[in-house]
Design brief:
7 helices, Exo/Archaeosortase_dom, membrane, peptidase activity, transmembrane helix, Exosortase/archaeosortase family protein, 2 domains
């Protein structure tokens, strides 16, 4: 019978626990196949977190860049004049499109709101003007190990495409508000955000796949 643990000093307690663990392992040996699986899994995990793993390096770079971007976005950009100019440009672009259809739609600069027949329909705030999309997209492009020549043409083209898609999003939300008001909140929070993020991912994946043969060339 083993002595009560509370009467043992720390060194003796450690030795006793070690002996018990050793006895348990002797009585319950690990199955060779199970041990092999554990070693393989451990090797895979260590390999993934290795600095030589391009996937780990890419994900780490994206996370670091996104933290820097989010800090800058929240602390300054979200209330900067540039942000309001983006909102204004988006509102004016959407209003101009609707003016071609004959629908009485106006952009109210003072409130950053699009009105239909004099009634407020859609407020374009900073979270809706596309800057958050631009920032996330930029982080993924910069972090990918491709040539800067490729990044410098793809990045502005991608941001322009995202802005156009965001303008389409605003237009569809206005139509949603005007004709199917009951589903407006759901589509505003989920549907159209999913579409924009999905588009960003597909465009980036297409570009990244094209860059894979030259992924090692960063000059």
């Amino acid at each position: 019978m083993s002595p009560p643990l509370k009467h043992l000093d720390k060194s003796k307690l450690v030795k006793l626990q070690f002996c018990r663990r050793k006895t348990f392992l002797l009585l319950n040996p690990i199955n060779p196949s199970k041990k092999f699986c554990i070693l393989v899994i451990r090797k895979k995990i260590m390999s993934f977190f290795s600095r030589k793993n391009p996937v780990f390096v890419f994900l780490t770079t994206v996370i670091v860049l996104y933290i820097l971007w989010e800090t800058f976005y929240v602390s300054y950009l979200i209330t900067s004049p540039f942000s309001y100019k983006i909102s204004s440009f988006l509102g004016r672009s959407s209003s101009y499109f609707f003016s071609l259809t004959g629908l009485k739609l106006n952009w109210v600069e003072a409130t950053y709101c699009i009105s239909i027949d004099g009634q407020p329909a859609l407020y374009i705030g900073t979270p809706c003007n596309g800057l958050a999309f631009f920032g996330l997209f930029t982080c993924f492009v910069i972090a990918f190990p491709a040539s800067w020549k490729s990044k410098l043409w793809f990045l502005p083209m991608g941001i322009l495409a995202i802005h156009v898609l965001n303008m389409v999003r605003v237009i569809l939300l206005i139509l949603n508000f005007y004709f199917f008001n009951s589903s407006f909140d759901f589509n505003h929070k989920y549907t159209f955000n999913f579409v924009v993020y999905g588009f960003m991912l597909l465009v980036w994946l297409y570009w990244a796949k094209k860059q894979l043969p030259n992924a090692g060339q960063t000059a």
